[in-house]
Write a structure and sequence with these properties.
The protein is 38% helix and 20% strand. The two termini are 32 Å apart. The strands form two sheets. Strands 9-10-5-11-4-1-3-2-16-17-18-15-12-14-13 form a 15-stranded mixed beta sheet, with helices on both faces. Strands 6-7-8 form a three-stranded antiparallel beta sheet, with no helix packed on it. With 423 residues, the chain is an alpha/beta fold. Strand 6 (126-129) and strand 7 form a beta hairpin.
Length: 423
């Protein structure tokens, strides 16, 4: 294994996994496997990039640090030369963490004095300029992320956000230096901080900037960011002859199907509206879940009654309605109830023969894959930007697509099932 990734949620893990698997156009990427939690056994020797998916974005910082360090140890044991800490391209975190504390701990373990940090993902409209994060044409704190139910982002200046979370110095490398090319950028990174450890936010406005940044990061023991930061990491190993360039195959699994959605993002709500024009859709009332009126058996019955028609069940709502329910019942109680509901539903569906599952939302994806306990997933072709088809190992494989809330075109759900089917 050459590159090891520690991802703080499951959809983000698949996002960076497909980036490493795809590599640069015409060149190919690395043979990539995504692990659902920290494996208890060595990786297959064919794996060149291993992505450990944790559910650590919103848990207490101490637990996130412990889990991330444990994942790092396993990846180092597999021979990884470079570790990537992957978080969301909207820098989802609170004043307490978890991005800063995890980065600090990994930097200390890896003796990394200069840690590049870049959440930019231009293909999804996320860019970093003068240290400020933008979502399309809006600053982060005006993009809708200020209403996120778990990690509301109130400040677009990531230098201020990060400094609240870290015990290390925070620096910034502006876009004009990135635009000069990978070698000048490498030198700029080297000059920062002196003997003091420093976390460096690096601007990026387009994919060319991310390729430049990736090449400039060659040899750094630790880098952090969104999936875009991995665009050129495979290239570094390919040009050195340590990897040949892998081209992902198509994942195709036959059998019953289901779509489970728990994201309240605007993009996901639009995708649900589009899907229900042609397919059966069931809305879940969160209060009914909390009071026991709705359970996994009801969801399973709906999906199985509508087999062959791409059935979808969802608990999405507007940010205002979600906030009201959280205030009424408590944020943790609401989150736990929905996680348990979707996890139990997935387990029952698979036990009854469902073999293709599309999941919308990071927290929901984490609940589903944790419940299914699939172990490792082979990365297949990209369904939509940042979302690969994935297939579990073994004689009776399960095909999955895990979509972050804001990802995917309007017809994503139907297209994802078609891809998993091999159409």
């Amino acid at each position: 294994m050459l590159i090891g990734v520690i991802a703080d949620d499951f959809t983000g893990a698949s996002d960076i996994a497909v980036t490493l698997s795809k590599g640069l156009p015409g060149e190919g990427g690395l043979h990539t496997t995504q692990y659902l939690g920290i494996p208890q056994q060595p990786a297959d020797t064919s794996v060149e990039a291993g992505v450990v998916a944790l559910k650590s974005r919103s848990i207490p910082a101490k637990q996130a640090v412990e889990q991330s360090l444990a994942a790092c140890e396993w990846l180092l044991d597999q021979g990884c030369q470079q570790i990537v800490f992957k978080y969301c391209s909207t820098f989802d975190s609170t004043a307490e963490g978890n991005i800063g504390p995890v980065t600090d701990a990994l930097a200390e373990r890896l003796n990394a004095q200069r840690v590049v940090m870049c959440p930019a993902f231009p293909a999804m409209g996320r860019t970093l300029y003068q240290g400020h994060l933008f979502v399309h044409d809006k600053p982060l704190n005006e993009s809708g992320m200020e209403h996120h139910p778990l990690t509301p982002m109130k400040d677009a200046d990531l230098r201020r956000v990060l400094q609240q979370q870290t015990r290390n110095a925070v620096g910034h490398i502006a876009w004009h230096k990135v635009n000069e090319g990978s070698e000048p950028l490498r030198q700029a990174i080297t000059r920062q901080g002196g003997s003091e450890r420093i976390l460096l936010l690096v601007d990026a406005l387009n994919e060319n900037d991310l390729r430049t940044l990736g090449q400039a990061c060659e040899g750094l023991p630790l880098i952090t960011g969104g999936s875009g930061i991995a665009l050129a990491l495979a290239h570094n190993f390919i040009v050195r002859g340590e990897a040949k360039g892998h081209h992902a195959g198509v994942a195709a699994v036959a059998g019953p199907e289901a779509i489970l959605v728990g994201s309240c993002s605007g993009a996901t709500r639009g995708q649900i509206d589009e899907h229900q024009k042609l397919h059966p859709v069931l809305m879940i009332d969160v209060r009914d879940v909390l009071t026991g009126v709705t359970d996994a058996n009801r969801l399973v019955a709906f999906i199985e009654q509508n087999q062959g028609r791409a059935p979808l069940v969802y608990s999405s709502g507007t940010p205002e309605s979600v906030k009201q329910i959280q205030q009424e019942y408590g944020r943790e109680k609401v989150a736990a109830a929905l996680d348990n509901l979707f996890g139990d539903t997935a387990k029952k569906l698979v036990a009854n023969g469902t073999r293709r599952i599309v999941v919308g939302g990071g927290e929901t994806s984490g609940a589903v894959v944790s419940a299914l306990n699939l172990g490792a997933l082979i990365i297949g072709e990209e369904i939509d930007t940042g979302v690969p088809a994935m297939v579990s190992q073994g004689q009776d494989p399960i095909a999955l697509a895990l979509k972050s809330g804001n990802f995917g075109a309007k017809d994503f759900f139907a297209r994802a099932l078609n891809t998993l089917r091999g159409d």
